Amino acid sequence: MKNSPIIVSAPGKVHLLGEHSVVYGKPAILAAVGLRVTVTVIPSAAEGVARNDGLDKIIEPIIKKHFKIKKIPSYQLSISSQIPIGSGLGSSAAVSAAYIAALLIFLKIQWDLNLVNNLAYEAEKVFHGNPSGGDNSTVVFGGLVWFRKETPDLKIIQPLPFTIPSKLSKNFLLINTGKPKEITAEIVGIVSSKVKNQKSKFEKLFIDQEKLVRELLPALSQSNEKELIRIIRKGEKNLEAMGVCSNYVKGIIRKIENAGGAAKICGAGGKTKATGVLLCYHQDKNKLESIAKSFNLPFFSAALGVAGLKTGWQI
Ligand code: MEV
Question: Quick one: residue 77, left, alpha or beta (phi over 0 = left, psi -120 to 50 = alpha)?
């Protein structure tokens, strides 16, 4: 048993609404999405960490600093992921959370989800500069999450007491527009300078996003499709007004809207062309699939509101 592999997985996330405004203290609703990253840590006699893409250089210092540890014994690391990287589905949060939990188990440190979440937030700061903490909280706790950053140190992470009713959940489709040219930190930075220069415009946008996020709660729990479509459309328009959606992707979204559906970016977005994955809704999912095909874009269905961090001890 001494060298048994330690296996931890975490899901991706989508913002049902509230991305960007969540960085400025407004609430967001996120869903853990049914695509997972699995991290395996195998204790090893050989020096070093095999196969890590430099991730150990980000994660190990966070653990060493927090627990005042000088050296982490050697291990092998393997990561397999179903989550497209850098596409708004929280891949960095998921891999950080799973890796952190696997290392804590490896180091025989007592842990719980709050601890992993706090440490994953530190990793998100390295990746994204000024993250809200919504992505890591959702991939760790799973389900549907109401998230609000009150202060840098105080966050409301409230699991929603319902799942998305199947009448609605069966009609979501994810369309992948590709990896944005700009990374999340860049887009968040661009919004931040706009917030400074166009204060009143952004205050209005953020207030409207909060209103829509609040209206989304009953729309989801009561299966109100008409409301859901209205809220996604309006929320997407506000994101576009923030300048985080390229003209190319606006074109795709308008096609979906004209066909009777709704679609939105579900992470930081992108300015040049690709904006990552789009969260799309239509009563007739075939319509969404034909639009994705007409743009030559991959699409897939994934469950929304899945379990968060999970551990397993055998391969
Ligand atoms: C990124 O997935 C979502 C943003 O709101 C940034 C954040 O919340 O940290 C754009």
Answer: beta
Residue 227 CB: number of other CB atoms within 10 A?
Answer: 15
Domain 6-163+304-314 adopts which CATH fold? Answer: Ribosomal Protein S5; domain 2 (3.30.230)
The structural domains of the chain, with segments of one domain joined by +, span 6-163+304-314, 166-300
Helix (H) or strand (E) holding 256: helix 247-258
This model's pTM is above 0.85: yes
134 lines ligand 1 (CB under 6 A): yes
Q: Is 276 in the pocket of ligand 1 (CB under 6 A)?
A: no
Question: How many angstroms separate the alpha carbon of residue 58 from the centre of ligand 1?
Answer: 19
Which among 29, 83, 92, 184 is the best mutation to test ligand 1's pocket, defined by most ligand atoms within 8 Å of the CB? 184
User: CB of 188 closer than 6 A to ligand 1?
Assistant: yes
Q: Mean pLDDT by 10-residue block, N- to C-terminus, for the chain (315 residues)?
A: 85 98 98 97 78 84 97 93 95 98 97 98 94 98 97 94 96 98 96 97 98 98 97 98 98 98 97 98 98 98 97 61
Residue 295 CA to ligand 1 centre (angstroms): 26
- 270-310 pLDDT tens trace: 999 999 999 999 999 999 999 999 999 999 999 999 999 99
